[in-house]
Amino acid sequence: MPTFPAGVTPWLVIGLGNPGAEYEATPHNVGYMAIDALLVRTGSHLAPLKGLHAHAAATELAGKPVLLVRSTTFMNESGIAVKDIAEHYSISLDQVIVVHDELDLPLGKVRVKQGGNENGHNGLKSTTEYMGSRDYVRVRMGISRPPQGVTVIDHVLGPIEAGPELDSMIDVAADAVTEIVNNGLAAAQQKIHSRK
């Protein structure tokens, strides 16, 4: 179980997704992909959080203590992991960052916000339910709406197209997390939202 020095409260950065190889390369798992990018940047490795429905790495971003997390629950129960970890490490809502796929953004676009509706996203619905609030920070990774004739379920759980657009979005999402931790939400919005 990762630990931090007494009196130090880490940021909780959790990527939403579904565990298992069959879901790995799907639009619903781009949150996991952003966490993986941050793990590479920090030279960190995930380890099970015993009893907390997640794998995590204790590390630093911009010199600040951070817990990088992949939940091991399925998407619609993501809130269980968020709540358990936040309680275990005494992390307040304003230091919780949820990284997730977003149907209402075009593929490749990253946006940062605090609070707001869940827009039908089951991972966000679960997080809001278990945390008792919508006021956590979200890093939203665009996956676009499905083309005509394709259901949302088939779209989010189908194969995602690999390539420069996806790679760039993952990098920008990782940058967004780092900027939030280092300089706060407003600075991150200004920096990330000004990108083409």
Automatic annotation (TrEMBL):
Major subcellular location class: cytoplasm
Claim: Cytoplasm is one of the keywords in the record: yes
Active site: 28
Binding residues annotated for tRNA, in chain numbering: 23, 74, 76, 122
Function, as annotated: Hydrolyzes ribosome-free peptidyl-tRNAs (with 1 or more amino acids incorporated), which drop off the ribosome during protein synthesis, or as a result of ribosome stalling.
Organism: Corynebacterium suicordis DSM 45110
Alphabetized CDD domains for the sequence: PTH (cd00462)
Keyword list, A-Z: Cytoplasm, Hydrolase, RNA-binding, tRNA-binding
Molecular function as annotated in GO: peptidyl-tRNA hydrolase activity
Reactions catalysed: an N-acyl-L-alpha-aminoacyl-tRNA + H2O = an N-acyl-L-amino acid + a tRNA + H(+)
Site, as annotated: Stabilizes the basic form of H active site to accept a proton: 101
Name the UniProt record assigns to this protein: Peptidyl-tRNA hydrolase
Feature type site, description Discriminates between blocked and unblocked aminoacyl-tRNA: 18
EC annotation from Swiss-Prot or TrEMBL: 3.1.1.29
Compartments, record wording: Cytoplasm
Subunit structure: Monomer.
Family (UniProt): Belongs to the PTH family.
Family annotation (InterPro entries): Pept_tRNA_hydro, Pept_tRNA_hydro_sf
Top-level EC class as recorded in UniProt: hydrolase
